Protein backbone atom coordinates (compact mmCIF):
# COMPACT_ATOMS: atom_id res chain seq x y z
CA UNK A 1 0.00 0.00 0.00
CA UNK A 2 1.41 3.36 -0.95
CA UNK A 3 2.05 5.82 1.87
CA UNK A 4 2.86 9.49 1.33
CA UNK A 5 2.97 12.30 3.89
CA UNK A 6 2.24 15.90 3.03
CA UNK A 7 2.09 19.15 4.95
CA UNK A 8 -0.11 22.19 5.12
CA UNK A 9 2.21 25.19 4.78
CA UNK A 10 1.37 28.83 5.34
CA UNK A 11 3.18 30.49 2.41
CA UNK A 12 5.49 29.38 -0.37
CA UNK A 13 7.09 32.35 -2.08
CA UNK A 14 8.19 32.50 -5.72
CA UNK A 15 11.97 32.60 -5.97
CA UNK A 16 11.89 36.10 -7.46
CA UNK A 17 9.65 37.57 -4.75
CA UNK A 18 11.22 40.54 -2.99
CA UNK A 19 8.40 41.27 -0.60
CA UNK A 20 7.61 38.49 1.92
CA UNK A 21 4.24 40.10 2.61
CA UNK A 22 3.11 39.44 -0.97
CA UNK A 23 3.00 35.67 -1.40
CA UNK A 24 1.51 35.54 -4.91
CA UNK A 25 3.09 36.82 -8.11
CA UNK A 26 -0.17 37.60 -9.90
CA UNK A 27 -0.06 39.33 -13.26
CA UNK A 28 -1.34 42.93 -13.55
CA UNK A 29 -5.11 42.91 -14.12
CA UNK A 30 -8.34 44.91 -13.90
CA UNK A 31 -10.76 45.18 -10.95
CA UNK A 32 -13.46 42.66 -10.11
CA UNK A 33 -16.76 43.94 -8.65
CA UNK A 34 -18.01 42.08 -5.59
CA UNK A 35 -21.67 40.94 -5.65
CA UNK A 36 -21.82 40.49 -1.86
CA UNK A 37 -22.59 43.82 -0.18
CA UNK A 38 -21.16 42.93 3.22
CA UNK A 39 -17.62 42.44 1.87
CA UNK A 40 -15.47 45.52 1.30
CA UNK A 41 -12.61 45.80 -1.17
CA UNK A 42 -10.05 47.50 1.04
CA UNK A 43 -8.51 46.87 4.45
CA UNK A 44 -10.11 50.02 5.81
CA UNK A 45 -13.51 48.97 4.59
CA UNK A 46 -13.13 45.49 6.05
CA UNK A 47 -12.27 46.91 9.43
CA UNK A 48 -14.99 49.59 9.49
CA UNK A 49 -18.07 47.98 7.95
CA UNK A 50 -21.21 46.98 9.88
CA UNK A 51 -21.27 47.19 13.72
CA UNK A 52 -19.26 44.33 15.18
CA UNK A 53 -18.33 42.74 18.48
CA UNK A 54 -14.84 41.53 19.37
CA UNK A 55 -13.90 37.94 18.53
CA UNK A 56 -10.50 36.42 19.32
CA UNK A 57 -8.56 33.56 17.75
CA UNK A 58 -9.91 30.04 18.12
CA UNK A 59 -10.19 29.19 21.82
CA UNK A 60 -9.27 25.85 23.31
CA UNK A 61 -12.99 25.09 23.73
CA UNK A 62 -13.66 25.77 20.04
CA UNK A 63 -10.63 23.68 19.12
CA UNK A 64 -12.13 20.73 21.03
CA UNK A 65 -15.46 21.30 19.26
CA UNK A 66 -13.69 21.41 15.91
CA UNK A 67 -11.94 18.12 16.64
CA UNK A 68 -15.18 16.47 17.82
CA UNK A 69 -16.84 17.53 14.57
CA UNK A 70 -14.12 15.83 12.53
CA UNK A 71 -13.36 12.73 14.61
CA UNK A 72 -14.23 9.26 13.46
CA UNK A 73 -14.23 7.26 10.26
CA UNK A 74 -15.62 8.76 7.08
CA UNK A 75 -16.68 6.93 3.93
CA UNK A 76 -16.92 9.09 0.86
CA UNK A 77 -16.26 9.94 -2.73
CA UNK A 78 -13.99 12.45 -4.43
CA UNK A 79 -15.46 14.36 -7.39
CA UNK A 80 -13.22 16.40 -9.67
CA UNK A 81 -14.71 19.10 -11.95
CA UNK A 82 -13.30 21.59 -14.37
CA UNK A 83 -14.06 25.30 -13.93
CA UNK A 84 -17.27 24.96 -15.95
CA UNK A 85 -18.80 22.31 -13.71
CA UNK A 86 -18.09 19.30 -15.94
CA UNK A 87 -17.34 16.10 -14.01
CA UNK A 88 -13.88 14.78 -14.86
CA UNK A 89 -13.68 11.81 -12.51
CA UNK A 90 -14.97 10.21 -9.30
CA UNK A 91 -12.89 8.18 -6.81
CA UNK A 92 -13.95 6.34 -3.63
CA UNK A 93 -12.27 7.49 -0.41
CA UNK A 94 -12.06 6.76 3.31
CA UNK A 95 -10.79 9.05 6.03
CA UNK A 96 -9.89 8.25 9.63
CA UNK A 97 -9.49 11.04 12.22
CA UNK A 98 -8.41 10.76 15.87
CA UNK A 99 -6.88 13.04 18.49
CA UNK A 100 -4.23 12.81 21.21
CA UNK A 101 -2.84 15.09 23.92
CA UNK A 102 -4.60 17.42 26.34
CA UNK A 103 -5.47 21.10 26.68
CA UNK A 104 -3.31 23.37 24.50
CA UNK A 105 -1.23 20.38 23.33
CA UNK A 106 -4.14 18.45 21.83
CA UNK A 107 -3.73 17.52 18.15
CA UNK A 108 -5.92 16.05 15.41
CA UNK A 109 -4.39 13.40 13.18
CA UNK A 110 -6.04 12.28 9.94
CA UNK A 111 -5.33 9.56 7.39
CA UNK A 112 -6.89 9.59 3.93
CA UNK A 113 -7.31 6.38 1.91
CA UNK A 114 -7.82 6.41 -1.86
CA UNK A 115 -9.26 3.39 -3.67
CA UNK A 116 -6.92 2.27 -6.44
CA UNK A 117 -8.09 1.09 -9.86
CA UNK A 118 -7.92 -2.62 -10.52
CA UNK A 119 -4.95 -3.85 -12.48
CA UNK A 120 -5.46 -4.21 -16.18
CA UNK A 121 -3.72 -7.60 -15.89
CA UNK A 122 -6.29 -9.11 -13.50
CA UNK A 123 -7.54 -12.60 -14.30
CA UNK A 124 -10.93 -12.70 -16.02
CA UNK A 125 -13.72 -13.91 -13.74
CA UNK A 126 -11.68 -13.37 -10.58
CA UNK A 127 -12.83 -10.55 -8.26
CA UNK A 128 -9.75 -8.69 -7.15
CA UNK A 129 -9.79 -7.16 -3.67
CA UNK A 130 -9.67 -3.37 -3.73
CA UNK A 131 -6.33 -1.75 -2.97
CA UNK A 132 -6.10 1.52 -1.05
CA UNK A 133 -3.34 4.12 -1.04
CA UNK A 134 -2.74 5.73 2.35
CA UNK A 135 -1.91 9.41 2.96
CA UNK A 136 -0.94 10.86 6.32
CA UNK A 137 -2.26 14.39 6.79
CA UNK A 138 -0.12 16.64 8.92
CA UNK A 139 -1.71 17.08 12.32
CA UNK A 140 -3.86 20.05 13.29
CA UNK A 141 -3.23 21.78 16.62
CA UNK A 142 -3.53 25.13 18.36
CA UNK A 143 -0.67 26.58 16.32
CA UNK A 144 -1.70 25.42 12.85
CA UNK A 145 -5.36 26.47 13.03
CA UNK A 146 -4.40 30.14 13.14
CA UNK A 147 -0.91 30.30 11.63
CA UNK A 148 -0.80 27.72 8.86
CA UNK A 149 -4.33 26.69 7.97
CA UNK A 150 -6.18 29.87 9.02
CA UNK A 151 -9.25 27.86 10.01
CA UNK A 152 -12.43 29.85 10.48
CA UNK A 153 -14.83 27.70 12.51
CA UNK A 154 -18.56 28.16 13.05
CA UNK A 155 -19.34 25.78 15.97
CA UNK A 156 -23.08 26.36 16.19
CA UNK A 157 -23.57 26.17 12.43
CA UNK A 158 -21.19 23.18 12.02
CA UNK A 159 -19.15 24.68 9.21
CA UNK A 160 -15.57 25.77 8.61
CA UNK A 161 -13.24 27.30 6.03
CA UNK A 162 -9.51 26.86 5.77
CA UNK A 163 -6.80 27.56 3.27
CA UNK A 164 -3.80 25.69 1.98
CA UNK A 165 -0.97 27.19 -0.01
CA UNK A 166 -0.30 24.48 -2.55
CA UNK A 167 -2.30 21.72 -4.17
CA UNK A 168 0.34 19.05 -3.63
CA UNK A 169 -1.90 16.69 -1.67
CA UNK A 170 -4.73 16.83 -4.17
CA UNK A 171 -2.27 16.34 -7.01
CA UNK A 172 -1.00 13.19 -5.31
CA UNK A 173 -4.53 11.98 -4.72
CA UNK A 174 -5.40 12.47 -8.37
CA UNK A 175 -2.23 10.76 -9.58
CA UNK A 176 -2.74 7.72 -7.33
CA UNK A 177 -6.46 7.53 -7.96
CA UNK A 178 -6.13 7.57 -11.73
CA UNK A 179 -2.99 5.54 -12.32
CA UNK A 180 -2.46 3.40 -9.22
CA UNK A 181 -0.35 0.31 -9.86
CA UNK A 182 -0.70 0.82 -13.61
CA UNK A 183 1.37 4.01 -13.46
CA UNK A 184 3.25 4.42 -16.72
CA UNK A 185 5.96 6.51 -15.11
CA UNK A 186 5.04 9.62 -17.09
CA UNK A 187 5.40 13.04 -15.47
CA UNK A 188 1.64 13.59 -15.50
CA UNK A 189 -1.32 11.27 -16.09
CA UNK A 190 -2.48 11.38 -19.69
CA UNK A 191 -5.57 13.47 -20.42
CA UNK A 192 -5.93 14.61 -16.80
CA UNK A 193 -5.75 18.19 -15.55
CA UNK A 194 -3.62 18.42 -12.41
CA UNK A 195 -3.31 21.35 -9.98
CA UNK A 196 -0.40 23.70 -10.45
CA UNK A 197 2.91 22.72 -8.83
CA UNK A 198 3.69 26.40 -8.28
CA UNK A 199 2.46 28.43 -5.29
CA UNK A 200 -1.30 28.79 -5.52
CA UNK A 201 -4.41 29.35 -3.44
CA UNK A 202 -6.33 26.28 -2.34
CA UNK A 203 -9.44 27.07 -0.31
CA UNK A 204 -11.57 24.45 1.46
CA UNK A 205 -15.14 25.22 2.54
CA UNK A 206 -16.88 22.50 4.57
CA UNK A 207 -20.62 22.28 5.26
CA UNK A 208 -22.26 19.62 7.42
CA UNK A 209 -25.63 18.17 6.55
CA UNK A 210 -28.67 19.25 8.56
CA UNK A 211 -30.47 16.05 7.53
CA UNK A 212 -27.95 13.26 8.27
CA UNK A 213 -24.39 12.62 9.49
CA UNK A 214 -22.86 13.76 6.21
CA UNK A 215 -20.59 16.57 5.10
CA UNK A 216 -19.47 18.19 1.85
CA UNK A 217 -15.95 19.61 1.52
CA UNK A 218 -15.42 21.88 -1.48
CA UNK A 219 -11.98 22.89 -2.80
CA UNK A 220 -11.27 25.87 -5.04
CA UNK A 221 -7.83 25.35 -6.63
CA UNK A 222 -6.25 28.35 -8.36
CA UNK A 223 -2.91 28.67 -10.09
CA UNK A 224 -0.48 31.59 -9.53
CA UNK A 225 -1.89 33.49 -12.52
CA UNK A 226 -5.23 33.81 -10.75
CA UNK A 227 -7.25 31.32 -12.80
CA UNK A 228 -9.19 28.32 -11.47
CA UNK A 229 -7.30 25.08 -12.05
CA UNK A 230 -10.12 22.82 -10.90
CA UNK A 231 -12.98 22.34 -8.44
CA UNK A 232 -13.16 19.37 -6.08
CA UNK A 233 -15.91 17.97 -3.84
CA UNK A 234 -15.46 15.36 -1.11
CA UNK A 235 -18.88 13.99 -0.06
CA UNK A 236 -18.51 11.91 3.11
CA UNK A 237 -20.67 9.97 5.59
CA UNK A 238 -19.48 9.37 9.14
CA UNK A 239 -19.45 5.83 10.48
CA UNK A 240 -17.86 2.40 10.31
CA UNK A 241 -20.89 0.60 8.89
CA UNK A 242 -20.76 -1.47 5.67
CA UNK A 243 -19.21 0.60 2.91
CA UNK A 244 -21.78 2.56 0.93
CA UNK A 245 -20.15 5.46 -0.87
CA UNK A 246 -22.21 8.65 -1.08
CA UNK A 247 -22.21 10.25 -4.49
CA UNK A 248 -23.51 13.45 -5.97
CA UNK A 249 -26.96 12.78 -7.36
CA UNK A 250 -28.82 14.78 -9.95
CA UNK A 251 -26.27 14.47 -12.74
CA UNK A 252 -28.36 16.55 -15.12
CA UNK A 253 -26.46 19.14 -17.13
CA UNK A 254 -27.08 22.59 -18.49
CA UNK A 255 -29.73 25.02 -17.36
CA UNK A 256 -31.61 22.37 -15.36
CA UNK A 257 -28.97 22.62 -12.65
CA UNK A 258 -29.96 26.21 -11.88
CA UNK A 259 -33.66 25.46 -11.41
CA UNK A 260 -33.49 24.36 -7.71
CA UNK A 261 -31.86 27.69 -6.82
CA UNK A 262 -34.41 30.00 -8.43
CA UNK A 263 -36.80 31.96 -6.22
CA UNK A 264 -36.70 34.19 -3.15
CA UNK A 265 -34.42 33.17 -0.28
CA UNK A 266 -34.46 34.64 3.22
CA UNK A 267 -31.90 33.92 5.90
CA UNK A 268 -29.14 35.04 8.21
CA UNK A 269 -25.38 35.43 7.83
CA UNK A 270 -22.51 35.34 10.31
CA UNK A 271 -19.16 36.87 9.31
CA UNK A 272 -15.89 36.23 11.15
CA UNK A 273 -12.91 38.36 10.16
CA UNK A 274 -9.32 37.20 10.46
CA UNK A 275 -6.84 38.52 13.00
CA UNK A 276 -5.16 40.95 10.60
CA UNK A 277 -8.60 42.51 10.05
CA UNK A 278 -9.44 42.85 13.72
CA UNK A 279 -10.78 39.38 14.64
CA UNK A 280 -14.33 40.70 14.65
CA UNK A 281 -17.76 39.22 14.13
CA UNK A 282 -20.78 40.69 12.30
CA UNK A 283 -24.27 39.38 11.54
CA UNK A 284 -26.90 40.33 8.98
CA UNK A 285 -30.34 39.31 7.78
CA UNK A 286 -30.36 38.55 4.06
CA UNK A 287 -32.86 38.37 1.21
CA UNK A 288 -31.71 36.93 -2.12
CA UNK A 289 -33.88 36.92 -5.23
CA UNK A 290 -32.73 34.63 -8.06
CA UNK A 291 -34.57 34.84 -11.36
CA UNK A 292 -34.10 33.79 -14.99
CA UNK A 293 -35.94 35.65 -17.77
CA UNK A 294 -37.17 34.26 -21.08
CA UNK A 295 -33.84 35.18 -22.71
CA UNK A 296 -31.97 33.02 -20.18
CA UNK A 297 -30.59 36.10 -18.42
CA UNK A 298 -29.83 35.23 -14.80
CA UNK A 299 -30.57 37.94 -12.21
CA UNK A 300 -29.35 37.92 -8.61
CA UNK A 301 -30.67 40.61 -6.26
CA UNK A 302 -29.13 40.65 -2.76
CA UNK A 303 -30.38 42.75 0.16
CA UNK A 304 -28.74 42.76 3.61
CA UNK A 305 -29.78 44.35 6.90
CA UNK A 306 -26.66 44.51 9.05
CA UNK A 307 -26.49 43.61 12.73
CA UNK A 308 -30.08 44.56 13.56
CA UNK A 309 -29.28 48.16 12.66
CA UNK A 310 -31.02 50.29 10.07
CA UNK A 311 -28.15 49.79 7.61
CA UNK A 312 -29.47 48.26 4.43
CA UNK A 313 -27.47 47.45 1.30
CA UNK A 314 -28.60 46.12 -2.06
CA UNK A 315 -26.64 44.66 -4.96
CA UNK A 316 -28.10 43.59 -8.30
CA UNK A 317 -26.05 41.17 -10.39
CA UNK A 318 -26.90 39.91 -13.90
CA UNK A 319 -25.37 37.16 -15.99
CA UNK A 320 -25.92 34.50 -18.61
CA UNK A 321 -26.13 30.72 -18.34
CA UNK A 322 -23.89 28.65 -20.57
CA UNK A 323 -23.84 24.88 -20.16
CA UNK A 324 -23.06 24.27 -16.46
CA UNK A 325 -21.97 27.77 -15.49
CA UNK A 326 -23.36 31.25 -14.88
CA UNK A 327 -21.13 34.10 -16.05
CA UNK A 328 -21.89 37.46 -14.46
CA UNK A 329 -21.14 40.78 -16.10
CA UNK A 330 -18.80 41.67 -13.24
CA UNK A 331 -16.33 38.90 -14.22
CA UNK A 332 -17.61 36.49 -11.58
CA UNK A 333 -19.02 33.05 -12.30
CA UNK A 334 -20.81 30.11 -10.72
CA UNK A 335 -20.00 26.51 -11.61
CA UNK A 336 -23.27 24.58 -11.30
CA UNK A 337 -22.56 21.12 -9.89
CA UNK A 338 -24.76 18.06 -9.42
CA UNK A 339 -26.27 17.31 -6.03
CA UNK A 340 -27.70 20.80 -5.51
CA UNK A 341 -24.30 22.48 -5.26
CA UNK A 342 -22.50 25.35 -6.88
CA UNK A 343 -19.09 26.96 -6.45
CA UNK A 344 -18.46 30.63 -7.19
CA UNK A 345 -15.22 32.41 -8.05
CA UNK A 346 -13.85 35.34 -10.09
CA UNK A 347 -13.26 34.57 -13.74
CA UNK A 348 -9.76 36.03 -13.31
CA UNK A 349 -8.69 36.68 -9.71
CA UNK A 350 -5.64 38.65 -10.81
CA UNK A 351 -7.90 41.33 -12.28
CA UNK A 352 -8.79 42.26 -8.71
CA UNK A 353 -5.19 42.37 -7.58
CA UNK A 354 -3.95 45.14 -9.86
CA UNK A 355 -6.60 47.55 -8.54
CA UNK A 356 -6.23 46.40 -4.90
CA UNK A 357 -9.68 44.84 -4.90
CA UNK A 358 -10.73 41.96 -2.70
CA UNK A 359 -12.15 38.74 -4.14
CA UNK A 360 -14.23 35.92 -2.74
CA UNK A 361 -14.85 32.19 -3.20
CA UNK A 362 -18.25 30.65 -2.51
CA UNK A 363 -19.65 27.17 -1.89
CA UNK A 364 -23.42 26.55 -1.79
CA UNK A 365 -25.17 23.31 -0.83
CA UNK A 366 -28.91 22.91 -1.33
CA UNK A 367 -29.23 19.52 0.33
CA UNK A 368 -33.03 19.59 0.65
CA UNK A 369 -35.56 21.47 -1.53
CA UNK A 370 -36.02 25.02 -0.29
CA UNK A 371 -33.18 24.93 2.24
CA UNK A 372 -29.56 25.79 1.60
CA UNK A 373 -26.25 26.65 3.28
CA UNK A 374 -23.45 28.79 1.88
CA UNK A 375 -19.87 29.58 2.85
CA UNK A 376 -18.02 32.56 1.39
CA UNK A 377 -14.33 33.22 2.05
CA UNK A 378 -12.99 36.68 1.16
CA UNK A 379 -9.36 37.49 0.33
CA UNK A 380 -7.56 40.80 -0.04
CA UNK A 381 -5.44 41.80 -3.03
CA UNK A 382 -2.37 40.05 -1.56
CA UNK A 383 -4.11 36.70 -1.21
CA UNK A 384 -4.55 37.03 2.57
CA UNK A 385 -7.80 35.91 4.20
CA UNK A 386 -10.08 38.81 5.17
CA UNK A 387 -13.11 36.92 6.46
CA UNK A 388 -15.40 33.91 6.19
CA UNK A 389 -19.20 34.17 6.10
CA UNK A 390 -21.78 31.46 6.76
CA UNK A 391 -25.30 31.78 5.30
CA UNK A 392 -28.36 29.76 6.26
CA UNK A 393 -31.36 30.42 3.98
CA UNK A 394 -34.82 29.06 3.17
CA UNK A 395 -36.92 29.64 0.08
CA UNK A 396 -40.15 31.56 0.72
TrEMBL record:
Residues 261-396 form the Biogenesis factor required for ATP synthase 1-like C-terminal domain. InterPro entries: BFA1-like_C (IPR048378), BFA1-like_DUF3598 (IPR022017), Calycin (IPR012674). Transmembrane segments: none annotated. Residues 64-239 form the DUF3598 domain. It holds the Pfam family DUF3598_N. One of its GO terms (biological process) is chloroplast fission. It comes from the Eukaryota. This is Uncharacterized protein LOC111316719 isoform X1.
Amino acid sequence: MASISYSYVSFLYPSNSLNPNKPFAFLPKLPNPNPFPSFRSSKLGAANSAPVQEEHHMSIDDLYRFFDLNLGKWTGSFHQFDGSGNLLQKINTRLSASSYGEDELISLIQTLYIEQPQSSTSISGHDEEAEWAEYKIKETNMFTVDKNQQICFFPKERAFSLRYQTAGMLETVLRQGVLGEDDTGDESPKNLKLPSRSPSIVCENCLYSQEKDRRARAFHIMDPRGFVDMLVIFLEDRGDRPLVYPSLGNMMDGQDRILPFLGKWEGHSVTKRSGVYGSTRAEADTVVLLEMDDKHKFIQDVTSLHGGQDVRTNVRWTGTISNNSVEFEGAYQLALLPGGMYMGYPSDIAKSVAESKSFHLEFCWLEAPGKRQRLVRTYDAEGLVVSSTYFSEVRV
